[in-house]
Specification:
- Keywords: Membrane, Transmembrane, Transmembrane helix.
- The chain folds into two domains: 268 residues, Growth Hormone, Chain: A, CATH 1.20.1250.20; 242 residues, Growth Hormone, Chain: A (Up-down Bundle).
- Helix content is 72%, strand content 1%.
- It is built from 22 helices and two strands.
- A two-stranded antiparallel ribbon has the order 1-2.
- A hairpin with a 6-residue loop joins strand 1 and strand 2.
- The longest helix is centred in the C-terminal third of the chain and has 33 residues.
Length: 569
Amino acid sequence: MGRGLKDSELLPFTVQFLRGRWFALFASFLIMAGAGATYLFGTYSKVIKATLDYDQTTLNLLGFSKDLGANVGVFSGLIAEVTPTWFVLLVGAALNFGGYFMIWLAVTGRIAKPKVWQMCIYICIGANSQNFANTGALVTSVKNFPESRGSMLGLLKGYTGLSGAVMTQIYLAVYGNDSKSLILLIGWLPAAISVIFVYTIRTMKPVRHPNEIRVFYQFLSASILLAVFLMLITLTEKLVTFSKAAYAGAATVVCFLVFSPLFISVREELLIWNMQKHPIDSPMEITVDKSTPEIVESKQVVSMPGSPKQGDEKVEKSCFLTICDRPERGEDYTILQALTSLDMWVLFLATFCGLGASLTAVDNLGQIGESLGYPNKTVTSFVSLVSIWNFFGRVFSGFVSETLIVKYKVPRPLMMTLVLLLACIGYLLVAFPMPGSLYVASIIIGFSFGAQLPLIFAIISELFGLKYYSTLFNCGQLASPLGSYIFNVKLTGFLYDREAMKDLAKKGLSRSSVKALTCIGSHCYRLPFIILTFVTLFGALTSLILVVRTRNYYRSDIYKKFRENAESL
C-alpha cells in the first residue's frame, strides 16, 4: 500500500482503475445520489399547485403518478435481463430529462397549460427513470459484492436518500430560492451523471477481499460526514440569511464530500496494483484477468452462484412448467416461481401497508407544515430533514441488519417489523401535533421510510437468489404505488379537501370563491394519519408472519455458497 506509482505506471494504473470494481462502485454512489428527485416533490409541489391552479386531490393524484413511476420498475428489470447496463442507464437518462423538462416548461408557462392526465404522464416518466438508475447501478453492485449486500444496499439507497438535500444545496447556489428552477435541475443533473458513467458500471467477477467490510465502513463514514454536514447547513440556512456566495460555498463543500469516496476507491485499486506488482508480499498469489483488471486468485475461474458448472448438460424446462417446482430458499427462483411464492405475497402486503403509508406522509409533508402554520422556509427544512434521516434509516437498516444476520442469525424481516412500529409514532405526532413536534415527526418518518427499502431489496435477494434479481427487486416494490394511490389520493387527499370545504362553509364561502383549496389547522390531517397508523401497525404484524416462516433459513449460513465460490478460485 505504501508503494507509490512510477511515471511509467501512471497510465496503466489509471486504465485499470477506471475499469475496476471500486471505481464502478464510486460511480454507482454518484448515480444513486442523483436518483432521489422524487423525494423533492414536497418542495416543488407547491409551485405546481399554485401555477396550474390545482386542488389538493389533484396534487395528490400527481403524487400518486410520481410514486407509480418510481416504483413500477418491472420494465427496467426486464430490459436489463436482455440488454447491457450502459443501455439501461441511457434509457433512464432520457426518461429523466424528458419527464421533468416537460414539467418545467408547464410551470414556467413556456407551453400551454397541460391537462391533468398529461402532467401525470410527465411526472410518471420522470420518476420512472430512477428505476433504470437502480437497476443499472444497484443490481450491478450487489452482484459485484454479493457477500456485503446488506451494507451495499444501505449505502447505495442511503445516497439516494441524501439526493434531495444534495440537489437542494446545488439549486440554491446555482438558481437561488426558485422552486421552478429546481424542477429544471432535477431534469438535467441526474441525466448528465448517468451519461458520464454509462460505460463504467458493469457486472464483474465477484472476488473476495480480505478487508471488504472494513472498506464499506469507511464508505459509510464518508457518507455520514456528508449527511451530518447537510443537516447542519440546512438548519443554519433557516436561522441565518445566506448570501449567494455563502450558498456557493456550502454547495462546494457538499460536492467535495459527495466525491470523497473516490479517494477510498483509488486506495483500494492501488492496493490491487501493488499486489499484482509484488506478489511475494501479498497475502495470496494473484493473476490478472485482462478483460477485467481485478484480483483473481490463480488457476481457477469464478462462477456466479446459480450458473451451470462445466460439464453440466442440464436441459432447462419452460418457466411455466417449473412454477410448482420451487427450489429451497436462497436458491435461484425463476421470475414466476418467485411471484407465486407465499413469501413474496406476504412481503408484498407488508410493503403495501408500510411503504404506501410512508410515501403518503412524505408527499404531504409540505402541506402538513402549511396547515400547521409553519413559514415556507421552515417547511423546506422539514423536507430536507426527511431526506437526511431517510439516509440514516437506509444505512442503519442495511449495516445493522447485516450485522444481526451474520453474528446473531436474526431474520432480516424482524428488522422491518421494528421499523414499521417506529413509523407509527411519527404518524401519531402528525395526527396529534404539539409545538415543534413536526420536526420530530419529520425525522421519524424519514428514518422509517428509508429503512424499509434496503430491507425489502435484501430480503428478496436472500430468499429468491440473484439470477433474476434485476426483475424481482423491481416487482417487489410494486405494492408501494398501489398503497400510495389508496392512502394518498383516495384517503388523505379526499379527507383534506373535505376539511377545507368545511372551513370555507364556516366562513360563508364556496369553492368557486377561492383559487386554491387550503385547510389550516391541526384537524386537517388528523383522521388520515390515525388511519395510516393502524394500516402501518397491520403491516408490522404481517411482516412478523415472514419472520416466522424464514427463521430457520436465517439460522443457516446464508452466504456460504458465495464464500465457497470465492474461495475456490
